[in-house]
Write a structure and sequence with these properties.
Number of helices of chain B: 3
Number of domains of chain A: 1
Number of strands of chain A: 5
Low-confidence stretches of chain A: 1-13
Mean pLDDT of chain A: 89
Oligomer: heterodimer
CATH superfamily of chain B: Porin
Largest interface: A-B, 65 and 59 residues
Strand order of the largest sheet of chain A: 1-2-3-4-5
Chain lengths: 157, 373
């Protein structure tokens, strides 16, 4: 099976986050009153976040498989493609929920797509949450790269 | 694990971030295992090689909230009638119903949430070929019993998580001098529910830090009135604390536990054993990633580690029992763990098995490989 087909199949199975959680996450990351508009890039939705006429940044939601469950997360970037924050929207695993803790997520802030983001180096792990730590770190790294590429190519603006 | 379609890790952007998609049923397979080479007898005598564990992890989610998880283990590669060793057993098999981050309800065969190794026992997660002796003789890993409970994180950014269960109790007729409560476990096999027991854990985490406290409280008398009566007859009370710290190339971990068997005298009288009235001990372990010195950019690891364990399954004895000082064990283990990836490990270590009596002491050379996925 081709990777593309497999991706498509998995994408269809991937659960999304409840809208209220997404709205709360956008408000937390960008401040109350931030407006989020949905842009389409290929088949993917990206949230364009603004207040009045000024662009605050972009956000996208993804899923990465932990031990046996998808972990639904949000990555937000600012207008110059630095990572603003990561949020864990839905965590379904039986162990490893520490990836949702703010002190762990905080490690990603300010990073750019060109920055190295490796577990055990730039990103400290948490004992007993190793699988989720690796999964979310990989997910964030790829999402950050994708959002940055789209922004710099003008696919989102 | 995540081998839904044999693709390794996948990251997917949600096609519709503001829309709830119908949750789909899905089954995932994973596993872990370890092969050991052990020479307990010295360099001029033969060693033993053993496929110590082969575990298949099977999980199924029925919807976004309800999931089944299990681990089926084969020990020593093979089970054959009349031959020693070998075991096929379920290590875990339970249903989870997720109400929210703060609580998931759980029922089935669950792991006692005690210490470090019992819940996190995949070979790449610990140094040394064999699990620490403490995690065999004091905390009897892999300790699992049938029951129900709740797990979750305490909201508000506290960094605290908990697990609490009501499970079947230990059985006094399995307690022993050398292995403490180990053979008192029932492990989900026609387990007597005469003495339901409580167990739980509270832990606090930050990047690189995890600190936990655990307990077990329950009777063991089963139906033997000579040992004890009532739900909590002949109680076993366990308290344990553990800590893990990682910073750059350094990793430290430590565990201590104290187990009280207040009716050890009655248990010994009933079953002809020399069970201690107190079982206690712990270990500290430090590790340093040598690859940081020679290849700081590498994501591989070569951990040099040193662990020292001290524990005594007869830390106190009831009247009528003379302490066996060979049970006051002091085990020093040092060696290397090479991890080409975070979920594979090649191990080598040397153990000095000592005891307070100075009798029957051993030195053990071990090599091993382990994986998880």
């Amino acid at each position: 099976m081709s990777i593309a087909l497999a991706l498509l199949l998995l994408a269809a199975q991937s659960p999304a986050a409840p809208p209220a959680k997404v709205a709360a996450s956008i408000a937390r990351v960008f401040g109350a009153g931030a407006r989020a508009d949905t842009l389409r890039v290929d088949t993917v939705s990206v949230l364009r976040v603004s207040r009045a006429d000024s662009l605050l940044g972009f956000a996208a939601i993804g899923n990465v498989l932990g031990k046996d469950q998808p972990i639904t997360f949000l990555v937000a970037i600012d207008p110059v493609d630095r990572l603003k924050d990561v949020d864990i929207l839905v965590y379904r695993e039986s162990y490893g929920g520490e990836v949702a803790y703010e002190p762990w997520r905080r490690q990603f802030r300010g990073k750019s797509a060109g920055d190295s983001l490796r577990v055990g180096k730039e990103i400290r792990s948490i004992s007993g949450a190793t699988i989720s730590v690796h999964a979310v770190t990989l997910g964030v790294r790829r999402m950050l790269a994708q959002l940055t590429a789209w922004h710099q190519s003008g696919a989102i603006r | 694990m995540r081998t839904l379609l044999g693709l390794g890790f996948l990251v997917l952007m949600a096609p519709c971030p503001l829309q709830i998609l119908a949750a789909q049923e899905r089954t995932t397979v994973g596993g872990y295992g370890e092969v050991h080479y052990t020479n307990r007898t010295g360099p001029k005598t033969p060693a033993v090689v053993n496929l110590a564990r082969f575990v298949v992890y099977l999980a199924h989610s029925f919807d976004d909230r309800l999931a089944f998880r299990s681990e089926l283990e084969v020990e020593d590669a093979k089970v054959e009638g009349g031959k020693p060793g070998g075991e096929v057993a379920l290590e875990q098999a339970y249903l989870d119903y997720r109400l929210g981050d703060w609580v998931t309800l759980r029922t089935g065969l669950v792991l006692a949430p005690i210490g470090i190794i019992n819940e996190t026992h995949e070979p790449p997660t610990f140094n040394g070929v064999e699990r620490p002796g403490f995690d065999t003789d004091v905390i009897p890993t892999t300790w699992r019993e049938i029951g129900l409970g709740a797990v979750g994180t305490i909201p508000g950014g506290s960094g605290l998580a908990y697990r609490v269960y009501l499970v079947n109790g230990l059985r006094a007729d399995g307690l022993s001098a050398a292995e403490g409560i180990r053979e008192g476990r029932q492990e989900g096999r026609h387990a007597s529910f005469a003495n339901p027991s409580f167990t739980g854990r509270l832990e606090w985490a930050r990047p690189g830090v995890k600190i936990g406290g655990s307990f077990w409280y329950g009777g063991t008398a089963d139906t033997n009135a000579a040992v004890g009566t009532g739900t909590f007859g002949a109680p076993v009370v366990l308290v344990s604390a553990d800590a893990r710290y990682d910073s750059g190339p350094f990793a430290l971990r430590a565990v201590v536990a104290n187990i009280s068997v207040s009716d050890a005298q009655a248990i010994n009288a009933a079953y002809g054993q020399s069970v201690g009235s107190r079982i206690a001990g712990g270990y500290v372990e430090g590790a340093y990633d040598l690859l940081r010195l020679v290849a700081p950019a590498s994501s591989q690891k070569l951990n040099a580690f040193l662990r020292h364990e001290r524990y005594d399954t007869q830390a106190s004895v009831p009247a009528g029992v003379t302490r066996d000082r060979t049970l006051a064990r002091r085990i020093t283990t040092f060696g290397l763990t090479y991890k080409p990836t975070w979920n594979t490990a090649f191990k080598g270590d040397y153990q000095l098995l000592r005891n307070a009596a100075g009798a029957g002491e051993l030195e053990v050379l071990s090599l091993g490989v382990g994986y998880q996925f």
